[in-house]
Amino acid sequence: MGSGLFRLSLCCGYEQHVDTLFPLLVGYLLGSVPFGLILTRLTGGGDLRAVGSGNIGATNVLRTGKKGVAVATLLLDMGKGLAAVLIARHVWPGSEAFAAFAVVLGHCFPVWLKFKGGKGVATMMGISVGLAWPIGLVYAVVWLGVLFTSRISSLGGMSAAVAAPVAALLLGHLGYVPVLGLLALLVLFLHRENIARLRAGTEPKVGSKK
């Protein structure tokens, strides 16, 4: 009986590790696909990292003058965040937060690009929708509202990222507050240069080539 309990314990422990490690791995790999870089190269725009801020996200793609590619990058970066959460929910129920964290981490620190990726705003939008659509709705409203009123992409993105854990808390999705809070802090950290420019009044607006 003792050996049976031991085997049961090992089995349960293995399943718990699988339910944690696999969503992290799948999320990270999905997140690390640099759609902006790939699409810009495929459409003759060269290396996106040599343009504007050097970021691989949709805002920097827009600086190449390719609006359609920028929209596609935005949708795909959102889509990989949504996909990671939905896959985790279907295959490893209850592991959505792990996948959500990993997919944003993969986008921001892709191993293929020496851990120099994007800033996570669009991908965080995708995971917000996947975790709970009302959180995603708040994210979108704040992002677009601040963006359209200020015409400053970084301000809209940071505002939305901070709004996500607040929305999760107020809407009763308490289990998602920690991961969204951590990701909001990550987004703010990655925007530290933008924050410095905002304080100095030199942050470029949407459409600027800088």
Could you please describe the fold and organization of this structure?
This protein is mostly helical. It has helices at residues 2-31, 35-42, 58-62, 67-91, 96-108, 121-131, 133-150, 153-170, 177-190, 192-200. Helix 1 (2-31) packs antiparallel against helix 4, helix 2 crosses helix 4 and helix 8 packs antiparallel against helix 9 (177-190). The longest helix has 30 residues, at 2-31. It is globular and about 40 Å long.
Summarize the structure.
The chain is mainly alpha-helical and about 210 residues long. About 70% of the residues lie in helices and about 0% in strands. The chain contains ten helices and no strands.
How does the major sheet shape up?
Answer: none
Uncertain ranges: 8-14
Helix/strand order: HHHHHHHHHH
Task: Write down how many β-strands occur, each being a DSSP E stretch of 2 or more residues.
Answer: 0
Structural class: mainly alpha
Radius of gyration: 19 Å
Strand proportion, as a percent range, falls in under 5%
- Described by its quaternary structure, the protein is single chain
Summary keywords:
single chain, 210 residues, mainly alpha, 10 helices, 72% helix, globular
Task: Outline the fold blueprint.
Layout: H1 2-31, H2 35-42, H3 58-62, H4 67-91, H5 96-108, H6 121-131, H7 133-150, H8 153-170, H9 177-190, H10 192-200
